[in-house]
Amino acid sequence: MTKRLTLCADDFAQSGSISAGILQLIDAGRLSATSAFSQSPHWPELAGELKARAERVDVGLHFNLTHPFDAPVKPLSHWLMKSQLRQLSLATLRDEALTQIDRFADHFGRLPDFVDGHQHVHALPVIRDALFDAILRRWQQDPLPYLRSPDRLGHPGDNRLKALVLRSVCTNFDDQARERGFATSPWFGGMYSLNPQADFPGLMQAWLAKIPDRALIMCHPGLPAADASDPIAASRSREFDYLAGDAFAQQCLKRRVCIARFQPDPVATA
């Protein structure tokens, strides 16, 4: 049986080189989704590039609280601690989510197909409630966007401790999202150290062997760039090279994996 995989490139619009790499992979049929930083100064000029490809790829909002663009941000450690202690302002976070949703729509011409989060902040306690609220305020007529569920992580990649922490801090996100009518994927993957020495081809082969139908895997490709502000720039080019190459296509054929846009579970949405 053919297994449908939503392969999603994160961080669109973070930089020109990242975005160009993602666009090339979309054109080659190697990606079926990408999530964009609507806060980025590059988003207004790049949104049209994605809109021209919107029939081939899901385009989502990469909700951000940790990557600095035009405003100061708090590190991930701040959000991890404060969310677990429930010491965050729901109203402030909801307003931030609304701002990012609106900026996405202003330049893309419509609301996003899905929402995920940079460093998975969207799934942390309190932040998730603010995001649920913001989405329900904006999606008055359209179908709700689908959401990424980090607590459905199905493979630890090359760092079991990192995987354990992610599942722990995001616990019950999938259940709470589904209770509110959001579609989610039954299996999530793509987490690893993002170290340039990591065996990304080997990890991708392991993920492809393990996934069920309708799985979602994140990736972080980009063209080579000397970008001191991007700590994973070297890993991005390695991911791009593998995803663009014949070996990845052959692995998909071997595992009977079809890279496809997200399809909700008909049973869950009936």
TrEMBL record:
Its cofactor is Mg(2+). Pfam families: YdjC. Keywords: Carbohydrate metabolism, Hydrolase, Magnesium, Metal-binding. InterPro entries: Glyco_hydro/deAcase_b/a-brl, YdjC-like. Coiled coil: none annotated. Signal peptide: none annotated. The keyword Oxidoreductase does not apply. This is ChbG/HpnK family deacetylase. The lineage of its organism: Bacteria, Pseudomonadati, Pseudomonadota, Betaproteobacteria, Neisseriales.
